[in-house]
Amino acid sequence: MQIPGLNQTYGGANGVSLGEEISFSVYNDTKPVVAADTTGTRRLQSEDQADKVDVVLNAASNSTAPANATTPIQAAVQPKNATNATQPKSNKLVMASTAAKNFKFTNSNTEFKTYKQPVVKKAFPNMGLTEGGTLLELSGAWFD
Amino acid sequence: MRIVCKTPPNDNIIAAQPIYVSLNGVNWADTGFTFSYYMQPILTGLSPKFGTMSGGTEILIAGLHFSNITDPEFVKCKFTLIGTGRKASQKFIPAIYKDQQTMMCVSPNGFFGGEAVNV
Asked: For chain A, how many structural domains are there in total?
């Protein structure tokens, strides 16, 4: 399963498969990567749908994390043959919020870093050849 | 702090393109600045080819693809002394857009009689 978008972050590609347990960090931004459903579990009908899953987090992690902080959020993917009450009958995948305490979590050593919105104070030059290749310099703050 | 990037090719010489930046390739921020494209001008001639030492002669430069969307602050004629051992600094004079085939510069002073300059 490939978590959408995470291969485009500082954390690099992040993949899990059925039966694995993962944990990861998210950032508090104006566009949080949080599903509308912030409690409980999100269940998938098959592994084919795994790449469409939303990360489900608890509400506290979504609203109180300070800027530039990495907030550890844990999710779990249940093994196929799990026998607890939330396990679907066949090949179903479950991702759970931190509110779900009946899962065992392990650290994936994957980071999701936060950053402030970059601010550009100057752009020079403001014109160039149609062929491209003009070195455009943007000066400002919060570029790292 | 600064970011430096190479502009991509773009044939749109009419509209200025907005500049966005992203630190993760997903979320893009509008900088509020724009970038305009112009075609490389082709120079075909200038007139007159003589002027007074004191300068002030209006030199009409003929060519193709002159544009008035470029910033006049950075559109200039450069006069460089040639054909003599004397050292003289280059002189930069603002170029005035007339039309797509014509620009105009006023000749500077500082060159001696009989000296040739490259424009």
From this structure: 1
